[in-house]
Amino acid sequence: METHVILVQIAVILVAARFFAEIASVLGAPRVIGELSAGIVLGPSLLGLVTPNDALQLLAEIGIILLLFEVGLETDMGRLVRAGGRAMVLALGGFVLPFLLGFGLCYYTFGLPLIVSLFVGGTLTATSIGVTVRILEDMGRQASREGEIVIGAAVVDDIMGVVLLAVLYDFSISGSVNVENTVKVILLVAVYFILAPVAAKLLAVVIRHIHETSEAPGVIPVALVALVLSFAALAHFFGAPELLGGFAAGIALSRRFFLPLGLTLHLDSSFNRKIGDQMKPIIQLFTPIFFVMVGLSLDLSAVDWASPFFWTFSLVIGATAIVGKVAAGLMVKEQRYVRTAAGMAMVPRGEVGLVFAELGRAADIFDNEVYAAIVIVIAYTTLLSPFWIKVYYRMYGQHFPPVRTAREDEPEPGARPP
Amino acid sequence: METHVILVQIAVILVAARFFAEIASVLGAPRVIGELSAGIVLGPSLLGLVTPNDALQLLAEIGIILLLFEVGLETDMGRLVRAGGRAMVLALGGFVLPFLLGFGLCYYTFGLPLIVSLFVGGTLTATSIGVTVRILEDMGRQASREGEIVIGAAVVDDIMGVVLLAVLYDFSISGSVNVENTVKVILLVAVYFILAPVAAKLLAVVIRHIHETSEAPGVIPVALVALVLSFAALAHFFGAPELLGGFAAGIALSRRFFLPLGLTLHLDSSFNRKIGDQMKPIIQLFTPIFFVMVGLSLDLSAVDWASPFFWTFSLVIGATAIVGKVAAGLMVKEQRYVRTAAGMAMVPRGEVGLVFAELGRAADIFDNEVYAAIVIVIAYTTLLSPFWIKVYYRMYGQHFPPVRTAREDEPEPGARPP
Q1: Which domain, by its residues, includes B244?
Q2: Which site from A56, A228, A271, B395 is most exposed, i.e. has the minimal number of CB atoms within 10 Å?
Q3: Number of domains chain A contains
């Protein structure tokens, strides 16, 4: 495709994302709904103005990696670790329940073949870490108690999803599961998550040194984007999702990161502030492209709206998708409202669900009807749950513990660069 | 190509660009030399680590468009208009002289065929607006008297180059020149350059309004990048080079832009300052990719270093390339040092010369030997002239009129956003 066409597409995506986000905002809906809708409107579902292509996919991928970097940057690692047990419960529950329910319904009630039922179950295990994080952000609940549990759980869920995908893919080809391979993947991912933040922190110290000694500007955007992208690629090599590389780099550079064994490598808060200031415009530029591309990938034109199987199947599986995650939330040891909100935040399947669905289609496991139903379930959960969550917060907001205030995060007075 | 490979490539390009730029800086050379050398080292000439691909080309193209946007943003239109006559002399002289000299030498001295000689002449007309601007920036001479003449001349040269390329391409296919088409292209480009800045200015007022009323951050990076990219695409549709669309948008948003007929649409300087602050990290991120890609495209492994024709031809044509542009500089009515520096700044052929050379090769007009010689001439002029210019400034710096100080550009006190 010629460059000028892609330039126009990027411009259209950016403008549409903003336009629909503003409309969503006026209507009282979370802004991410607007960006996802922009993709549905521009894409094959409606206007067909923009078709997904490699260049846009790359920019979207960079967008989600940078968004996860930002999430990591704003994460308080101590609180994440303390939320770890509850996050694990939410992740495991939100993985096992939808998988078993989805598989059982498909296999026993709808009488679908074994491998199809397994793939439907697999698709339902997904949590869209991007959409989930954006909903929390749009609501100002990122640093809340449920926010930290959900971010931790979404990270764990993403890792489990990759492992499950590999296992199911193996099974669909060879009819058996290679346990050794599975264990290897899990171990490698674990090694990555232990080593990557430490390495990123050491590199950050080098970057700060270059930033302070170099005569030319531009160290922060260039060095940090290079750092984040190479950690994303490294995550891929270790078998983890690329976007979690962004998260690992972000958490290492956050102000509240600590190394194991109580070691600390101090990055002063004015450097942290500069990172935030200079990375923000870049992150704001790339992330809307990601959400629009998720909307673009939800091809609703593939749906046969007249099929009765489609309606029954998608409604039953859709309900399962919601119930499974919310039930997992209720299993978390937390105040009632917090755990319900946490479960609800895990509902959107988004881009992660689409990866499963696409693989299912590409491997001829899903026929058109099942694929269409799965896509519409992903669309339900992705587009509707931000609404419910907003309504839930509006109704029960007063019962939530207060969000950690921004004040304790502010730098010392005068630390702001001139 | 898979995403994680491209992510690694981007990271490698960014790190190498910075690393070589720092080395260049330590050695006293302009930083752009470092970025170009990074491309030569990473590319097919030496290591072959990175091969140009569509995704990297797109990022590079966005980089040069954004760099030209920044140049436009920092250009004082009044001064550009006042420098217009001298810029025109420099552009025309630097176009006609190298063309005639190059063509004459090829056709009469080296006895090359007519169309080959015309294409060599055409290649020599090029000015690398990107490298030229970066040299001026690296020397802190962007706002100098010769700086404004050179920027104006490089813009005009780029337009003439596109027209010449279309004419020569026509000629190589049909053996005749379509005058009507040529006039149409020129008129369309003229229309673009009259309308685009006005349209961009009107849109900027809309963007400022959205920026002030929107509840969510990120208006400036998203809206401005969309604006710049769509003006670049628009330039393409009008037959002008895309990067000049970035320049048109930049000049419209500069603090010293005025509409025709004395109309003014005021953008307060605090908004302008915000544009600069938020766009800078994005520009700093993308532009090194462009210069590395120029270096990558200079495939020196194609050169047969043992060929005597190659040496004679490339030395003679290389000398012509330099003499033609410097002589054009001397034709400008300016103080001796200013006009010499202006001529020298026009010497690098860079990416624009490569476009001619590539077309010549793709259309089978250049055989391998001529192509290799042309590439090496482009490399000479691109890599060596920044050195000479730096030496020239060091030797005669005291004879130049002072550069416009930054002070008159500063906003009113207190206009800085909190």
Answers
A1: 59-398
A2: B395
A3: 1
